[in-house]
Amino acid sequence: MKKILRSLALAVICLTGANAYAACQMTPIDYDMPTQRLDEALQQLAHRSGCPIKVDLGADSSRKVKKFKGNFTPDKALALVLKKTGLEGYVENDGLTVDRRGQDFVHARAAELRKAIDDAGPKLEAKRKKRFLHQLDSIETGSKKLALEQSFVSAAEMASYKRDFDELARQIPARK
Known about the structure:
CATH class of the largest domain: Alpha Beta
Organism: Pseudomonas syringae pv. philadelphi
Largest sheet: 3 strands, mixed
Signal peptide: 1-22
Distance between the termini: 68 Å
Strand order of the largest sheet: 3-7-6
Radius of gyration: 22 Å
Keywords: Signal
Number of strands: 7
Strand content: 15-25%
Structural class: alpha+beta
Protein name: Outer membrane receptor protein
């Protein structure tokens, strides 16, 4: 009897999970989104697409987003909602997520390298130090620009940033 109940419970869990997944499909849907607050636009997108959206907007919730109309997949519609906000939108297993993960990674890694540059002190000549700091500024500016323009930082761009950071880290003398 216990085995039957366990099997039945497992079947219900699997079917429930399958239904939740089926609700968020990346198939094109018609959207007619007016100019509105970001939080309202995300709520309307979640309702229209059937995709849950994980987000913590904080001060960004009242930001206005531009209207758009057309037939889009939920991820493309999310990119349109987030365009020019500086927020990033990603597809995840259980729906969509809005955050700043790409920019946060770049900012944190740049801060680590700035500290390493400062810690290197006189071991690092002024000209190289200035060049390294300029590179870090350029990378941070680039990630912010990407988020504003395309509403995400791609895996390829993240890999490129990681390579740039690793190369820069190899050139910074270790503190003794």
